[in-house]
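USER:
I wish I could look at a protein chain and see how it folds. I am handing you a single protein, as its sequence and its fold in token form. As I understand it, each token names a local backbone shape. I hope you can help me see how the letters and the tokens relate. The protein I mean follows directly.
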Amino acid sequence: SGVEVAHVLLTRIEAAASTSQPITNLRCVLGALLRSMCGNPWFTEEVIVQDGVSVICHAIAESVQPELPPDSSPESISLERPAEVVEIACSCLGEMLQYQSGIDWCKEQEQPAFTPKVFAVLLSALFDAGGTRGTTPRATFNLLTFCLMVVPSI
């Protein structure tokens, strides 16, 4: 069922987000989640209910060096994973945040998923985009805009 598929995909994202996993694992599972959510509101809502926003934000946060100095600027962050993987993760979040339940989930969390570390990774991915075969990181830019509007405390 869709509930089980959502659970399996989110569990695989959590496992693939560990830095010991090859980047292709995370890219593949994020791509599978994105394909499953596109044009499928019911499935997307199920991913939101199963804390999909938090899982994806955690995967984004794990895209940087394990020990990030507190005063580091986005330009100094070294992505361990290419900006393209961050872009796929942002596309997944964009699918979830187009629904009111996704926005409500973000606003209701005591521990926000969009932390300063996630925000810094998004900015770093945006700056790094020039090195990723000339792609324009639209989903990353859109998510940054969302963060600035909805999570002003970042």
